[in-house]
Amino acid sequence: MKHHVLCLLVLCSIASPALSAEDAFRLGAQTSLNSYRVDDPAGSTAAGSGLSLSGIALVDVGRDSRVMLNVNKDAYSMAASTANIGQDVSSFGGGLSYQSMLRVARTWKPWIGAGVGYTSISYKNRYKLTPGGFSVPMANRDATDISLLLNANSEWQFNRDWDMGLQVQLAQSISDQSSTLRVGFYVVY
Questions:
Q1: N or C, fewer C-beta in 10 Å, the chain?
Q2: Among 138, 58, 141, residue whose Cα is nearest residue 95
Q3: What are the pLDDT digits (tens) for 11-58?
Q4: Which residues contact residue 116 at a Cβ distance below 8 angstroms, ignoring those fewer than 6 apart?
Q5: Contact between 118 and 77 (Cβ < 8 Å)
Q6: Which of 73, 58, 59, 80 lies closest to 180, judged by CA?
Q7: Which of 61, 69, 157, 161 is nearest to 101 (CA)?
Q8: Which phi and psi angles does 14 have, rounded to 5°?
Q9: Rounded to an integer, what distance in angstroms lies between the CA atom of residue 32 and that of residue 56?
Q10: What is the Cα–Cα distance from 165 to 56, expressed in whole angstroms?
């Protein structure tokens, strides 16, 4: 756990030079529907999906640029079959992205960005099914992952202090074929 906290502190410290008194700093929460693809070294897996709650921080570093920090906690299950490994997956991680505003129209100015993410993942209750339908248990495993992030946000001002937005983010592992696609709604203050 100390290793995970240390990695998140490093991600936060990368963003800290961008903070100053005149910069806009906003915090909020995001709920998202996620699609997961796991690259398991012991065999293939089915795609997984689930809902998650995340923390989000937005720091303006210019008129049309900002830094976005996400902290995510995910938990989902993947079904087993004769061809796929079943498992319960839980992860904790975060991502840091640099975003630029695109001025598409007067009323619509989406943010497009890229960044890097870190995730600590635990795979438990792993098993595979035999052709006869019997469950064959497999050893649990843990992993850490660095991923490349691509994201797009669209925001609307709710009132003077609150903004709400939609986010689409793809996290692609740099060490294997694992990926996560998030589509979420967030509120920031």
A1: N
A2: 58
A3: 444 444 444 444 489 999 999 999 999 999 999 999 999 999 999 999
A4: 95, 96, 97, 146, 147, 148, 149
A5: no
A6: 73
A7: 61
A8: -65, -35
A9: 12
A10: 11
24: burial class by Cβ within 10 Å (0-12, 13-18, 19+)?
A: exposed
Q: How far apart are CA 158 and CA 166, in angstroms?
A: 13
* Distance separating alpha carbons of residues 31 and 166, to the nearest angstrom: 10
Structure tokens given for 57: 């921080």
Tens digit of each residue's pLDDT (9 = 90 or more) over 144-169: 999 999 999 999 998 989 999 999 99
Rounded Cα gap, residues 49 and 126, in angstroms: 17
| 3-state SS assignment for residue 106 | coil
